[in-house]
From TrEMBL:
Name of the protein in its database record: HNH nuclease domain-containing protein
Pfam families: HNH_2 (PF13391)
Region (Disordered): 284-327
Residue span, HNH nuclease domain: 145-207
Source organism: Roridomyces roridus
Length: 406
């Protein structure tokens, strides 16, 4: 028996949009459009809370209200806005400036309350492993695509993209997320089908958004209308090791990608917030003073499924492939770096005088946790021949825990 051919093409162009505009110009300046796909309730449109989140990010974290033809748009986050034009207003500032790129947006001191739900991850204990195995560890822990549930053709996808490592460092994301292992480690990664990475997620074709204490996939572009029929507003289970700040940063990154064409036009005529003064990257082939002599110069060498730095149409806030951060040594069990320990000490200092929260316990973080790390680091530095064992690591899930094999 032969299976029949697939039917006619589905996912015809979708022409109904929620248009988000800036009210300080005449006519109102279009900031971006979101297709009004059909929601599970049967209503066509876009959730009010998602539009508010997107507008807040574009306004560099400033609170405002949505209006349509002068009428205030309020209500619960799951209210569905019908196709049409909506403007975002900030009290007392009609011509407020807009972030037009991810690199002009500063991560806020706190995120909206609905982004703190445990469904976005609770930063459960992270399985330490060599940097070489970050990608495989992520896939071993997730075991499937978090969107489709498929178990083949998987990639370990960054939330904050690898190409934005300088943005990560500038915004102290390792400290804010209690993750001294950095941007490439599993707490900043989720597993997805390989074709949903790159030209789909990284192009802002869909986003992850918290709805009713769950996380859902929201389709943001008409060219994936066929995908939207199956996965729009579908529940997505986020791994517990992930920090919700990384999810919020990914949402912001995707909003800038979704609206990149219209935001580029706004930057020419409107009041745009300048790019953050992020230090320049270290050119490939160069080494910084604290770079381990044995470390690979190209960060991608140590990572099996690193995200591509660009996707063909130019990357908003992306960095040319010939310029990458000079990496430090692998974060394995016995070769901690000064940067790793210093980051742990900074996290520890931020916790001084504050009560421990569940996320701290889940991450193995407690008051004074950095002290034994410092003692061990200094001792090993003073006694380089303490052990002949180098690059020891924890066995991966499904791998035989045999020192002869490892």
């Amino acid at each position: 028996m032969i299976k029949p051919a697939t039917g006619e093409a589905s996912g015809l162009p979708y022409n109904n949009f929620v248009n988000i505009c800036h009210p300080g110009y005449h006519p109102n300046f279009l900031l971006g459009s979101i297709p009004a796909f059909t929601t599970p309730s049967g209503a066509q449109g876009v959730f009010l809370g998602l539009v508010q989140d997107a507008c807040r990010i574009l306004a560099n974290n400033r609170e405002g209200v949505l209006r349509s033809q002068g009428l205030l748009m309020d209500g619960p986050p799951d209210r569905v806005l019908a196709a049409g034009e909506y403007t975002y207003h900030i009290a007392g500032d009609d011509q407020y400036p807009i972030c037009t790129t991810f690199r002009s947006w500063l991560f806020p001191e706190s995120v909206p309350a609905h982004w703190a739900t445990s469904a976005l991850g609770i930063m459960a204990p992270y399985l330490s492993c060599s940097k070489t195995y970050y990608s495989q560890t992520t896939k071993n822990q997730d075991m499937r695509c978090i969107v489709t549930g498929e178990t083949s053709r998987l990639d370990a996808c960054h939330l904050v993209p690898h190409a934005e490592e300088d943005w990560w460092v500038f915004n102290s994301m390792s400290i804010k997320t209690f993750n001294p292992t950095g941007i490439d480690s599993p707490p900043n990664r989720v597993t997805m089908r390989c074709d949903l990475n790159g030209r789909t997620l990284d192009e802002g074709r869909f986003v992850f958004w918290p709805l009713s204490n769950q996380v859902v996939c929201i389709c943001m572009h008409r060219d994936i209308a066929d995908f939207a029929k199956e996965y729009h507003v579908r529940h997505v289970i986020i791994p517990q090791r992930v920090h919700h700040f990384n999810m919020y940063a990914r949402f912001a990154y995707d909003i800038f990608r979704t609206f990149q064409d219209t935001l580029a036009q706004f930057a020419k005529f409107g009041s745009a917030i300048p790019v953050l003064p992020i230090p320049a990257r270290v050119p490939k082939g160069k080494k910084t003073a604290n770079t381990d002599a044995n470390a690979d110069v190209d960060m991608h060498v140590n990572d099996q499924d690193s995200d591509s730095l660009s996707t063909g149409n130019g990357s908003l806030g992306s960095i040319p492939e010939e310029s990458v951060h000079s990496p430090g040594p692998q974060y394995d069990l016995c070769r901690w770096t000064e940067e790793y320990v210093a980051t742990a000490e900074t996290i520890d200092a931020h916790m001084t005088g504050k009560p421990l929260e569940p996320c701290h316990e889940d991450a193995g973080v407690y008051h004074g946790f950095s002290e034994p790390l410092r003692v061990a680091f200094e001792y090993r530095k003073a006694h380089p021949n303490i052990s002949e064992v180098v690059h020891a690591r924890v066995a991966l899930q499904g791998e035989e825990d045999d020192e002869q094999v490892m």
